[in-house]
Amino acid sequence: MSADVRLEDVWIRFGDFVAAREINIHIQGGEFFTILGPSGCGKTTLLRAVSGFLTPSEGNVLIGGENMAGIGPNKRPTALIFQNLALFPLMTIWENITFSLEVRGASKQERRKRADELLELIALPGQGEKMVNELSGGQKQRVAIARALCAEPEVLLLDEPLSALDLKLRQHMRTELRSIQQQVGITFIYITHDQGEALTMSDNVAVMREGVVEQISDGTTIYDEPDTAFVASFVGENNRFDGKVSSVSEGIATVDTAEGTIQARVSANADSQVNAGDDAFVFVRPEAIQFINGATVDNQMNTKVYHEEFEGHFWQIFLDVDESQKRIKMSYVNDGATRAHARGTELAIGFPMQSAIALPQGELAAE
Amino acid sequence: MVSYWKNFFLKNGTAVALFLIISVGVWLFMMIILPQLFMLDFSIRANVPPPKFGTEEHYYTLEHYRYMLFGSAQASGTFNVIDLTVFFRTIAAALFVTLIDLALCYPIAYYLAHVATGGWSRLMVLSLIVPFWVNEILRAFAFKIIFGSTGVINNVLIAIGILDSPYDFIRNDIALWAGLSYAFILLMIFPIYNAIESLDKNQIEAARDLGSSWVRIHRRIVIPHAKPGISSGCTMVFMLTAGALAAPQILGGPSSLWFTQIIYQGFNQAGNWARGSAYAIILLISCIVLVLVIMKIFKVRFGEMMK
């Protein structure tokens, strides 16, 4: 069973501080939905409002069409996975996993049986008798998932559960979480500040900043079609050029910047329109920048190499633009033949106007 | 062992290490071990005045321990009902007071540790501590006044019509239990508070999120976590209640003796230090054994209590 989750005009205030401002989100049943934002943006607050630990100051939380007002966390069809997992250290693994069954008065045989099934699902068969502190980080992680799934929630809420793991394990758990979600088919609401996690796992992502949802879309749209300067600067790497729009025609803005005149696509979102005379940001992804090698590209710049990093499957070059000394970043795939450029090497680079995005100026993500 | 002491000196420096060892050693030996050894010695010798100490009349004997069980040598065959009754009643009352304190203090400690915040919790702690600035004896007298036949409690109960005539709280030992329960309340609250405070709040929320009722959260999560604190609080309250003297003296009913009062009589009124010592040793060892047995039953380890 999976239920849809709907937040309607939700405001959450702590005294004068507004943690969530007029939030409207509709999460389909069975969806893997991620709320992405820097720490302190209100994403955990929102999750607590869905799980029932916190009552919104205004607005409604609906799960499966039912208004959750006045329903406590123990009565909601949700299960929460905590950032620190909050496993019960004084219980065995199987007791941890089946705590929700114990609450419902299930017999010991029934609980043992269910624990074994779930241990199978999380690939820890036969480990039920161990204590929590005998497990590794990744194993604890999986036990926390099993404990939440055992409650048969319609919505699983995950509060940055992978943040304590090391990189390799984190990447592995991403895949695993996604496959568990597809197996059990329930709604996942996932909170993270890691855009990699958000993009790899989610059907849809909501990007939050200071209590406001900036954009809700699938991962590729968030990456390719950011609605606001914040989303563009927070999700993925981006080069930013500041300037003034001199003209807009057929969806292409011409922006005068210190690095020269740049032609860039205007965002598809009507709210983010830029008009002639406006101050604007132009965002260009490092991978959209190319070496020109004599060809003609919409936007061109002459640069000098500052520094180059070898990442294995790609190279990352930091370039100083001749006109303004602004440092930009480009990346290109390692084809096995390229070698590092020396500092000071002159490079002509460019990018097509379709891969540059012009957005109204606004708040940016912290560097 | 040698390397442990060497490290101890290296870590603290010679002066500090010597100070620590000497002060703790003197305290432990002079104030605790030596008096107990003297008492033990007194308790297994004949009762003679000090000038005869060391003479033949000061022989070793277990007659004082025998007296506790069977009374004087003449009254052979029957148990020393009076002293034994007082002894067991004291132990039972101390256990009862410990349970009352636990029931009172666990909720307070939980509230302080996990619910109250900022100024409110500081105010609560202060109002718990401030009454203990008042001398123990004065506090006992205050209880006597409150529970007296014309005290506040009787007056209120009569005024609201629950009682027709004053109830004798003192004769019925209620004043005594109340006074003793209150006397050691802090020793129960703070160990439990410390234990509960170290519990990750997320565990409570996790249990709640998994559908648990509050009763089950306390039974399965909070109490198991707080067990070391609960046992150290209970141990202290039980030991001190069983060994209390002032409160029973002042608040005890005319017909109810506390075992410590019998010990006191042995030393101060009967002039029988030997019997007083024997009784004190009996009380001490009984309490220690009882505590150890209860710890065994509830599977508490000593090491945990020190945390």
Could you please describe the fold and organization of this structure?
The complex is a heterodimer of chains A (367) and B (307). Chain A is α+β, with helices and mostly antiparallel strands. In chain A, helix 4 (108-121) packs across helix 5 (137-150). Chain A starts with a strand and ends in a 7-residue tail after the last strand. Helices cover 23% and strands 36% of the residues of chain A. The longest helix of chain A has 18 residues, at 167-184. Chain A has helices at residues 43-51, 93-97, 99-103, 108-121, 137-150, 167-184, 195-201, 219-224, 229-234; strands spanning 5-14, 17-27, 32-36, 58-63, 66-67, 78-81, 155-159, 187-192, 204-209, 212-217, 239-249, 252-257, 260-266, 279-284, 290-291, 299-310, 314-321, 327-333, 346-351, 356-360. The radius of gyration of chain A is 24 Å and the shape is globular. The model of chain A has no long low-confidence stretch (mean pLDDT 90). In chain A, a hairpin with a 2-residue loop joins strand 11 and strand 12 (252-257). Chain B is built from 15 helices and no strands. In chain B, helix 2 (14-43) packs across helix 14, helix 3 packs across helix 14 and helix 4 crosses helix 11 (214-242).
Tertiary shape of chain B: globular
Straight-line distance between termini of chain B: 23 Å
Mean of residue pLDDT of chain B? 88
What is the first-to-last residue Cα distance of chain A? 41 Å
Q: Unreliable stretches of chain B, pLDDT < 50, 5 or more residues?
A: none
- Number of helical segments with 4 or more residues of chain B: 15
Major sheet of chain A: order of its strands?
6-7-8-3-9-10
Assembly category: heterodimer
Low-confidence stretches of chain A: none
- Rounded Rg of chain B: 24 Å
Tell me the helix content of chain A.
10-25%
Shape of chain A, please? globular
The helix/strand series of chain B, from N terminus to C terminus, equals HHHHHHHHHHHHHHH
Order of helices and strands of chain A: EEEHEEEHHHHEHEHEEHHEEEEEEEEEE
Average pLDDT of chain A, to the nearest integer? 90
Helix residue percentage of chain B: over 70%
Sheet with most strands of chain B: none
